[in-house]
């Protein structure tokens, strides 16, 4: 498209990048076809093309964002299905991230919004605080209907029944491989995931060590910064990301790393983007090294020569998390691994559509999130699976809240059939 | 691009209009804030933009009828909009108009396999119509390149085609019935699950009428059983003439491929750089696809190979499996995106008699030199429908105008050699002023007379299709 | 009778007309009416024929027979196989291309390949004021302006008189075969034809007669194409339709052709007296509709979507059928019956309004076959 930035505006690297992206867009509208909010709302304004258009106008004119533009940008899931669809290579993710940062700097949100976002940014990335919040939510759940704010109600609804005790596996340490060492990898233990579910990291560690990986939980690593980054709070996200970059750089320069393994695809997408996020920062070089080594767990497992398993007789409905299929463009590895392990793998119709979890989306946009959840669960259940597998904790929580079919992480199933314990979710009656 | 000046009387009644619309639509279906109507200011022909007064998103035929009745009553022009993927500016608003988007109406109403039809709301995307029947191995045939995103309503308005229409026809050959809402709100049911009209062919008239005769909210479409298989071959020639001759010979031999696509050197090079499909660097590349059982496919391909080899191709490549087949198509399918990576482009759409292909390509090459703008050609060789892609720089002053002039010359050339201005995309605003190159005044008058019958008030998409000067009297009378 | 030899003569004749005209091609379709006869038969001759581009342009008065011969010499044909009405209507004369278009005459292959109007690429015609108008062209992909080409097809001369028509033609396939099933009742026949038409084997004709040459019901399913392909598909259809009974396959080219001409021209009713109705319906409705007709003879085409019914003179078939989705046209009857019952199915008020509006615009003086369609 034609853009109208002044030379002065283009001196800002963020605006420069935005201009590049906007020039690539030809306004063809293909992206509307795969956008979950466009499916639900049928409004150009809630499609990638429409958002691109609103963002373009906002940036070109240095506008103070108005509540309408903010509403539509807030409604974006950042599922990135549009990037998979775009024939012109528009980097929508970078554009919407930049727009969110711009909005955060220039838009005065209503007090309740600001308070809510502040609270999420102060709690979710910090496992101890998050555990306390989950406990409070569990207690407060029965009183949910007295709360007028839909988003707070949604949060109470999302609180899980069981809050696992802290796993010591998440402490900084090194796990020795059971086979002769093939690789040395760092495991990102994350933040929200380990407060909600410790089985995933446990299974990941068992699986990796079983097949020859020395696994190190780096000292000083923590939240990847995705949650705050997607809220537009660039400063905060960069602080946490920088901690990770330093922690992993230390390992790379120390005993060396073959990969940085991430088993929450929402985080994986962000870590792989560190190079771009830190391109104008002194940490740029290390950030690039970290991005280059960042791998989803399925990418590492596919190369580990895991032996084929016997037929389990179980049907697994594979839910392709947006961050994995669109954000990281990993579409086949998890299915291949599950099939090789002996599972019958089925996929729901419209598998490209988001389940509505999308980080904090299910908390901030409960109505749309609920509609997407309903669609997703309906298509999954139509395949009559014995178990649903996904590569992202957010999806697991979202889908799990609307179905009685057990929902597990892909690694839990792979761990199980190669010698690990039966996943707890499968044991519940 | 000249558009009629907005009616200031209507502009001053916006508040009243919005209030009345909100009595028949939920609040979230009425978009009136300037920060939001902006997103509806254009379709995929983004070079021309004008925000509408209001945009509405009805969810039922009755809501569409109510909206039109209000607008008719107040004399407000209405511009129907499907997915906004038109390349001809069909959904371009004027500042005094209401955009009526059908995107919320996307249900499947009925599927009938024994009678081979599907009935859908017209906001549904083209590809998802096939999506609704593919489990039973059926499909909906017209396949415009934008089929992932374009709406059936838009397909009907523009009589859309696609690569596979060589064998299966275009939208009008696959449309069996519609629910049409006239500008005064009257709902008319036309056609249905039976074949052919009992009187005048109103369906044929409505299809391709670019949203000017009524708003189509539901449609009955023909569905077909998928063939047992399909396979493409790629044939590369060092001469456009020879490639054209090869196409002609294949058709004369009685082979009916399901698609014959043609790409010239600039497009081939662009797609190689962008998609790396593995095409050779030649002057002309054909992709020919045939359907049937394995044996039938082999038989047809053998015949095609024999014919193709009579003309000494640089390469004749058959797909041995599904992956290779996808690779052969990959370049063609990424062609537009690939050209877009080089620069901005304007995609034209004219049709020529197949025999004129080499001459027209030569003339386009000459004009490209004269104008100093690069151009690549993608061509539905089986039926003569051309898509020249003119490269320009939208941010360079004067380039757009040069590009438009070049495009107009190409389209006039198409008419000159016995073809027409547009094969698939429609007239919209893009070719409006060229209509006088193809039609005499009496021809245009006969078409406008049809609109007089369906929409005497000339409020439905009034600034499209006909040169403004031709439709002026009628549009003025409406005010 | 006015018989212009050129387009401008025809235009002048219409401009000068002071009373209703009966527009005619070869006069074989039984639509003779009161008024001065104006025939386009003098506008005969092929203006362009490009086999490699599958394109034919000819005067509206060109005899269909001449076109058929010209195309056959290049191994091509009018794929929609228009009916020859002379046998059924006991008319004489030479059917013209323009007449085929004006009545949108489409035969058995219509169910697969499309109707006459689907092959029509362009028209030149003279409207009721004597103005010469063109629409469409000679190329297949054409969405330039409104599609008056489709409007003219099947307008029975009420909106204008065709002077020149452009067609897409198709190659004549190498071989053909007919899959035959004997003894099916109408419901089973429609089901069998639906299965066939819903198969991937590219069926190009599906018809059923309650009384074939030997008096028994016969269901006929046609396949065309390259020889090996036809043999393969016939075998696959035989397997698919085996549940309906014994399957025979006719491969003799002459007999296959004759069989489908028999269907196309409604031969069963040629030597029988009575009115003939032509009903277009949803195929699965055919059994119940045909039962209600209580006809003396029935011939089903288009997989059941077209019913030819032979009924006692003066029968109101529409009254017998009642309300249904589709239309019933009176094809053969006395002038009195036609006048009484109307040739064409009455339309809904909304559609009637639009059609009348169109007639008013194209023929303001009401001189082109007035009253024929509404």
Could you please describe the fold and organization of this structure?
The complex is a heterotrimer of chains A (429), B (479) and C (374). Chain A is α/β, with parallel strands linked by helices and 429 residues long. Chain A has 4 domains: 9-106, Alpha-helical ferredoxin (Fumarate Reductase Iron-sulfur Protein, Chain B, domain 2); 111-158, no CATH class; 168-297, 3-Layer(aba) Sandwich (Rossmann fold), CATH 3.40.50; 315-427, 3-Layer(aba) Sandwich (Rossmann fold). In chain A, 51% of the residues lie in helices and 8% in strands. In chain A, β8 (387-390), α22 (393-400) and β9 (407-409) form a beta-alpha-beta unit. The radius of gyration of chain A is 21 Å and the shape is globular. Chain B has 2 domains: 10-226, 2-Layer Sandwich (Uridine Diphospho-n-acetylenolpyruvylglucosamine Reductase, domain 3); 229-416, Vanillyl-alcohol Oxidase, Chain A, domain 3 (3-Layer(aba) Sandwich), CATH 3.40.462.10. Chain B is globular, with a radius of gyration of 23 Å. The two termini of chain C are 24 Å apart. With 374 residues, chain C is of the alpha+beta class. In chain C, the strands form 4 sheets. In chain C, strands 13-10-12-11-15-16-14-17 form an 8-stranded antiparallel β-sheet, with helices on both faces. Chain C has a 5-stranded antiparallel β-sheet with strand order 3-4-8-6-7. Chain C has helices at residues 7-16, 64-73, 86-89, 97-102, 110-113, 116-119, 148-152, 186-197, 227-241, 253-264, 286-293, 317-321, 335-341, 349-362, and strands at residues 21-24, 36-39, 46-50, 55-59, 76-77, 120-126, 132-136, 161-168, 170-171, 175-182, 203-209, 218-225, 247-250, 275-281, 297-301, 306-311, 326-332. In chain C, 31% of the residues lie in helices and 25% in strands. The interface between A and B is large, with 34 and 37 residues.
Question: Strand percentage of chain C, roughly?
Answer: 25-35%
Radius of gyration of chain B: 23 Å
Strand content of chain B: 15-25%
Q: Strand order, biggest sheet of chain C?
A: 13-10-12-11-15-16-14-17
Average pLDDT reading of chain B: 94
Whole-number average pLDDT of chain C? 96
**Estimated structural class of chain B:** alpha+beta
Global shape of chain C:
globular
Radius of gyration of chain C: 21 Å
By CATH, the topology of the largest domain in chain B is: Uridine Diphospho-n-acetylenolpyruvylglucosamine Reductase, domain 3
How far apart, in Å, are the first and last alpha carbons of chain B?
22 Å
Annotation field: number of helices of chain B = 17
| Total strands of chain B | 19
Q: What is the helix content of chain B?
A: 25-40%
Kindly report the oligomeric state of this protein: heterotrimer
* Sheet with the most strands, sense and barrel status of chain B: 8 strands, antiparallel
Q: Do you know the CATH topology of the largest domain in chain C?
A: Uridine Diphospho-n-acetylenolpyruvylglucosamine Reductase, domain 3
The tally of structural domains of chain B comes to 2
Low-confidence stretches of chain B: none
Tally of alpha and pi helices of chain C: 14
